[in-house]
Amino acid sequence: MLRYSLKRLLSLLISLAVASVVIFLVIEVAPGDPAAIMLGINAQPDTLASLRAELGLDVPKWERYLNWVGGMVQGDFGTSYTYRTPVADMIAARMQVSLPLALYALTLSTLIAFPAGIYAAARRGRGGDMAVMGATQLGVAVPNFWFAMMLVLLFAINLRWFGAGGFPGWDKGLWAGLHALTLPAIALALPQAAILARVMRSALIDILGEDFMRTARAKGLTRRQALWRHGVRNALIPVLTIIGLQFSFLLAGSIIIEQVFYLPGLGRLVFQAISARDLIVVESVVMLLVFAVITVNFLVDIAYALVDPRLRSRT
Amino acid sequence: MTLLSVENLSLAIHKTPILHGVSLTVDAGEIVAVTGESGSGKSMTALSVIGLLPDRMEAKGAIRLDGQDMLALPERNLCALRGNAVGMVFQEPMTALNPVRTIGDQVAETILVHKAMPPEQARARAREVLDRVGLPEERFPLTRYPHELSGGQRQRVVIAMAIALRPKLLIADEPTTALDVTTQAQILELLKGLVAEFGMGLLMITHDLAVVADLADRIVVMRHGEVVETGATRQVLAHMRHPYTRALFAASAHRVILPPAPPPEPLLRVENVVRDYRLPRTKLFAPPGHFRAVKGVSFTLNRGERLGLVGESGCGKSTLTRAILGLEPIQGGTITLDGDPVLSGNTPRREVRRKMQVVFQDPFGSFNPRHRVDRLITEPFHLLDTPPTGSERTRAIDKALTDVGLSPADAGKFIHEFSGGQRQRIAIARALITRPQLILFDEAVSALDVSVRAQILDLLADLCKAYVLTYLFISHDLSVVRTITDRVLVMKSGEIVEQGETEAVFSSPQHPYTQSLIDAAPVLPDREALLAELPA
């Protein structure tokens, strides 16, 4: 298990190094001059020169790369060209919204998907299964911003249980923060839950056909006992894969939902930075997201090994 | 005392009858074997006794265990009986255990689910049962996972689970079919010992008459969902009142007559062939280890000769077969066909490769289900420089199909329209169509019922007469290899430990491994002797 974890960790570090090189090359090197891109075509030559100096573009490329990576390792992501504040502070502020929102949505989606998927698999082909499958079909098909608008309409405008948007900040208390994130988290969670429930159902149906399920029944386990004791854990492998992918998506892909609910999240930051051609912010946020995705994959790999002893012994 | 009595059991699914009026009994301490070919309903009989029939299966009649009719019991009571009063062992040990739970957990679960003992005691009992089935604590602690065990060891775990609560009745559905002969002999011995020790009744399902003859007190012969003959094993085998029993016995003991092989002239030469598999690195910078699957094997196959290759799983016979076909790179030695090397570098040479064909074990998996038979059997044409076209191609297809006992009209059909035996004929037609110099049969008859197997063996003998066939027949089934080959190679742990004329090797094996293989293989009893002993 330790050997397996170390191997996965090594592969994580290599992936990060490769990703940083690729991002650096794409954004800073090819094609053209970052300073010219940031300032647009009407830039004055002297502003361009001073920006080049500020960005450190006058040193060799490899030195720029090392400065960039070295800075990030120490928590220095540079200074935003448009906002004139340290990028690290901006990201930290946005993460306070995006990370809890992603975790909240993921928790909700798992809480909905697991029972729904297990229930549907246990009643395969019967009414309950059809109902769950129909609902998940809707959940996959309907875009999450539509859910978001309907939720606002119902819970914020008609029932007035929640605010229609905005985020008060965590200094107003945990409850106020969670309260503000509830509607966006539900809107994000519903489509994810639909996908996850379908994956859970089909994984479990595959497992139900396995020989060891019949062995379990021959021991005297009821259908339900066999399903819970021998089925669910075996079905977790594909489910974990999807959960990992979904978390990565939720972290940065919630831009539309952030827009609908006026949340100061990472997605909006990226959007604004790209619109303003603030390459320093874009570069840092992209690197951060890559870091998050790779870390989540690492955690998923570790979770695989916890679930499946065959992976543990394969070193 | 009658422990189990199945009375007039009929099964149907969606009005399609599966079993008609099946009756049989098992006494305490008795071994009853249900035998028959696929589709005879023997497995369905077993599953109905433990109440694990597929959904929507309708059962009529009665299944009495200790006088209690199980068909009339609700599911809750059946759960209480399963694992407790009735245990079951299945065919496929590799997949019968949950891969993510330890063997100790899985054995103890039988005890815990019936609340027969508190957890501590249940684990102690699990340990005791595992010891009893031949998995001692030093090598097989309760914390082992199934993937760390071999097939035979896993089957022992399944048996331990089934007997943990000392059930009165044990059902074993083809428990040794997936195992090697020596492992099979050990498992059968274990089952026999358990029956004697605990006074259990054993209902054993098997297609193998030789196993039945060795093991069972009584025998039930089934065909198409009906019992055709039943009685004490020796009586039934001595007299065989029903023609189907006779046919089954004859097919199991089927011998073919091969035409004499032409004078020796080497065709395939395998010299000092070595195949290493790289093992995963154990240390980051240490060189990776190797597993040598084939350790410098040499043999010669003469033109027109029928050569057998036998050995247990993992002995390297499949690796060697793939290497001959050029599907596997080799790390040493040479393989030449007709003087030409099969490989150039690590890729097979087309001009040599087209002189050989192969027939695999699985008649269901080795065809593309979306292609018609004509396309399937002409696949080897892609090895030719100028494949026949038009009427020449049609003639080749017709000839190949007629050769294997099918009709030219079958060319337009899809593979699902054929039975297992017919599919294997199609596989042989595919191998024959380019008139190769060498055919490899890789467990080509192992998945077939005995009567179909006998027909395919006859077909091979006929083809040997019609064409000068040279083949390498790879199999774990000694009785088949004995009849269909002139010479045999015995392989163990990547080496050929014995070779010689087939009859000579079988009647007086020299190497201790060959002896143990032959001793372990169950044999059909001599009918003449039985008849003399038990006259009508």
Keywords:
heterodimer; A: 315 residues; MetI-like fold; 2 domains; globular; B: 536 residues; alpha/beta; Rossmann fold; 6-stranded mixed sheet; 22 strands
CATH superfamily of the largest domain in chain A, called what? Answer: MetI-like
**Poorly predicted runs of 5 or more residues of chain B:** none
Low-confidence blocks of residues of chain A: none
- H/E order of the elements of chain A? HHHHHHHHHHHHHH
Rg on CA atoms of chain A, Å = 24 Å
Mean pLDDT of chain B: 90
CATH class category name of the largest domain in chain B: Alpha Beta
Topology:
The complex is a heterodimer of chains A (315) and B (536).
Chain A: H1 2-29, H2 34-39, H3 45-55, H4 61-73, H5 87-122, H6 127-141, H7 144-158, H8 174-208, H9 211-218, H10 223-252, H11 255-260, H12 266-275, H13 279-307, H14 309-313
Chain B: E1 2-13, E2 16-27, E3 31-35, H1 42-49, E4 57-65, E5 68-69, H2 75-81, E6 86-89, H3 103-113, H4 119-132, H5 151-163, E7 169-173, H6 181-198, E8 201-206, H7 209-215, E9 218-223, E10 226-232, H8 233-239, H9 243-252, E11 266-278, E12 290-302, E13 306-310, H10 317-324, E14 332-337, E15 340-341, E16 343-344, E17 347-348, H11 350-353, E18 356-359, H12 373-377, H13 390-403, H14 420-432, E19 438-442, H15 450-466, E20 471-475, H16 478-484, E21 487-492, E22 495-501, H17 502-507, H18 512-520, H19 527-533
Parallel strand pairs in B: 3-8, 3-9, 6-7, 7-8, 13-20, 13-21, 18-19, 19-20
Antiparallel strand pairs in B: 1-2, 1-4, 4-5, 9-10, 11-12, 11-14, 14-15, 16-17, 21-22
Helix pairs in contact in B: 3-4, 3-5, 4-5, 5-6, 6-18, 8-19, 9-15, 13-14, 14-15
Walk me through this protein's architecture.
The complex is a heterodimer of chains A (315) and B (536). Chain A is mainly alpha-helical and 315 residues long. Chain A contains 14 helices and no strands. Chain A has helices spanning 2-29, 34-39, 45-55, 61-73, 87-122, 127-141, 144-158, 174-208, 211-218, 223-252, 255-260, 266-275, 279-307, 309-313. Chain A starts with a helix and ends with a helix. By secondary structure, chain B is an alpha/beta fold. Chain B folds into two domains: 2-252, 3-Layer(aba) Sandwich (Rossmann fold), CATH 3.40.50; 266-520, Rossmann fold (3-Layer(aba) Sandwich). In chain B, 35% of the residues lie in helices and 26% in strands. Chain B is built from 19 helices and 22 strands. The chains are: A mainly alpha (315), B alpha/beta (536).
